[in-house]
Amino acid sequence: MPWNEHDYPQSLKNFNPEVRNKAVEIANALLEEGFEEGSAIAIATDRAEDWAKNRGIPIRQDEG
Predict the structure, then answer these.
(1) 60 lies in a domain?
(2) 28: domain range?
């Protein structure tokens, strides 16, 4: 099931929208490659967090 900016895994609900959208993008790509949904979410979350850290972007909405 592909996700979007309005329909995404519950585990991403507190992420900054920019980081959440990156995680959704990565997760959707992993699903297309044949990954299971749970694995795609876990990998995408980790990669999106790294992506944000490398750019100095707060990961969660309550960070500033």
Answers:
(1) no
(2) 14-55
The count of structural domains within the chain is: 1
Per-residue pLDDT of 34-63, as tens digits, reads 999 999 999 999 999 999 999 999 999 886
Residue 35 falls inside a structural domain:
yes
**At which residue do the structure tokens 């490398």 appear?**
54
Residue 30 and residue 41 in contact, taking contact as beta carbons nearer than 8 Å: no
The span from the CA of 61 to the CA of 14, in Å, is: 6
Question: What is the pTM (predicted TM-score) of this model?
Answer: 0.92
CB half-sphere exposure, 27, CA atoms < 13 A: 28
